[in-house]
Amino acid sequence: PPRSTLFPYTTLFRSEIILFADADDYFCTNSIAKIYEAILKNDLDILLFDYNHWGNQNKLLKGFDYDARKFCPRGIVSGKSFIKTGYMPAAVWMLAYRREYMLKMNFKFINIRHEDEEFIPRVFYFAEKIMHLPLICYNYVQNESSFMQNYKEYGLFDKIKAMDNLNQFTQKYVKEEDVAFTLSEHISLRLMENLNNSFAIKSKAQGKMVKQMKKDDIIYFCIHLLYDCAGRKKEYLVSINSELTYMLFFEISLYGSWLE
User: Per 3-state DSSP, what percentage of the chain is helix, strand, and coil (rounded to 5)?
Assistant: First the structure.
């Protein structure tokens, strides 16, 4: 079922821990017991654990990327401290949640794709105790029917909506300048990656995407003049969000109509 429908039913759950798993994924043998033990022993709100990424015919597409979490705190930290590391999990199945904490804060998903990317930073922000368990507990299986294998154009706009919601949350609730700055950086980078991914699926919606982002006031654009390796002048589209500038460039000569 859509994740937005799940949390109204958490009052019916009797377990102390909440875990998510997609329909074709699975947990490693004995991993749930270790997750349970880590959360109760350390009185955690959130536990982050490792995973493997599998493709068809049991092919390991990508083992756990330890470099991706090299900035993960060692030990127990607050959610705000974790956010300031700059690393943010992208999927809810990468985490285990103390049920009491989730019910107390009344967290809910928004009913769109990419809901995890909006949900997780909010859950982290209010958490008092988060820890990373360096143990592979989960197996993410990507097959022909998986969402990412059949990515549709509407997903691009759902991601913009998710980041717009996260930006509104940041402006309303986040009082610490360094945390707000990190979340602003995160939002900007995710949006530029989203724009970049639109080319990967051969979408032609870039103009609409830019207009939507400008309308939501979550990202701004300017023209930046650079020289390529041959010394020729090139104009590029540059994103500016808050005080951050991300140099993920797109040639204006090809996409200049986006700024109209």
Answer: 45, 25, 30
| Distances 175 to 80, 121, 139, 163 between C-alpha atoms, Å | 11, 14, 37, 18
Task: For residue 70, give the nearest of 5, 156, 132 by alpha carbon.
Answer: 132
Which residues, listed in sequence order, are joined to residue 26 by a DSSP beta bridge?
139
Q: List residues bridging with 226 in a β-sheet.
A: 234
Choose among 97, 107, 101, 1: nearest CA to 49.
Answer: 97
Of 97-111, 138-152, 224-238, least confident by mean pLDDT is 224-238
Q: What is the pLDDT of residue 30?
A: 94
- Give whole-number Cα distances, 165 to 33, 112, 161, 216, in Å: 35, 11, 6, 10
Asked whether 32 and 25 are in contact (CB, 8 A), the reply is no
pLDDT given at position 66: 61
